[in-house]
């Protein structure tokens, strides 16, 4: 008789646990649904403190939740869970969400859903529940691409995306159809440097002009040259560009021409890895010398109105001004002829002859 009572008691307890589990699962689904609804109608994320109190007050003994992301769970080859200490800050964690979106080509809402699920599993609302806020927290560089169309006397631009027909207001008075006209895309040098200088400032070396260099020795870098050393200044960034074209079709009738910018003050290994794309041309015909005109215009503007950026110096932010100077351009023979607007290297009176 005692065995029967014990067995019935176990059945009763297991039934209660099942009901409790179903109740908790229903509450979890309702909570996630409410967060998804709030993320669609609210532009700003919920307050972190209120959200933390709400999460913790509704915890049940049958739900195991970590208090923070102090450990990251990985899978080993034997499918055993292994915990390793986390060293990521909030910005790096958000960047992982965006890298996952880029890898799987998923939607913006999937990023928000991942943030919601992670917040619930962790127990702390570490991620905002708005896509726009996630982008702001990650400080992603989102440049504005400006279009410049070629015309008979130069270029027209920057051009609004809504434009369909363009008329040159200079000498040629050419009418250009935006759907068929030749153009290139350009990113503002000013916006690019204002974003990246605070992040790379600790690696910049402005003391090249002060160090001694024996002219009889071999040149190891562009910063060893006398021209660079005469231009170097602690409040000046010296850049050079790389320009070349490459075919990307089997027939070779279409080519892409990127214009890359390099900062001389960066160490050589880092400089070669941090090539900043500034402009790009892609068409059947190659670009003209006018492709570097927006860069020249910006350099003149920066010379008159230096860049103003905030630099982290120890534990405080300081404002600094920088001018930007162009040292040289690195091109092969065909690209050099385009930049100099001369006859190609294989023609009569070709460039550099």
Structure description:
The protein folds into two domains: 21-138, no CATH class; 188-211 and 222-340, no CATH class. It contains ten helices and 13 strands. The chain has helices at 2-41, 48-57, 90-104, 108-122, 131-138, 189-200, 226-231, 268-273, 293-304, 333-340; strands at residues 71-75, 81-85, 145-151, 154-159, 165-167, 175-177, 183-187, 236-243, 246-247, 255-263, 276-283, 307-313, 316-331. The strands form three sheets. Strands 3, 4, 7, 8, 9, 10, 11, 12 and 13 form a nine-stranded mixed sheet that branches. Helix 1 packs across helix 4 and helix 3 packs across helix 4. It is extended, with a radius of gyration of 30 Å.
Summarize the structure.
This protein has 353 residues and is of the alpha+beta class. It contains 10 helices and 13 strands. It folds into 2 domains: 21-138, no CATH class; 188-211 and 222-340, no CATH class.
Helix and strand arrangement:
Blueprint: H1 2-41, H2 48-57, E1 71-75, E2 81-85, H3 90-104, H4 108-122, H5 131-138, E3 145-151, E4 154-159, E5 165-167, E6 175-177, E7 183-187, H6 189-200, H7 226-231, E8 236-243, E9 246-247, E10 255-263, H8 268-273, E11 276-283, H9 293-304, E12 307-313, E13 316-331, H10 333-340
Parallel strand pairs: 8-13
Antiparallel strand pairs: 1-2, 3-4, 3-7, 5-6, 7-11, 8-10, 9-10, 10-11, 12-13
Helix pairs in contact: 1-4, 3-4, 3-5
Task: List the main descriptive attributes of the protein structure presented here.
353 residues; two-stranded antiparallel sheet; 10 helices; 13 strands; 37% helix; extended
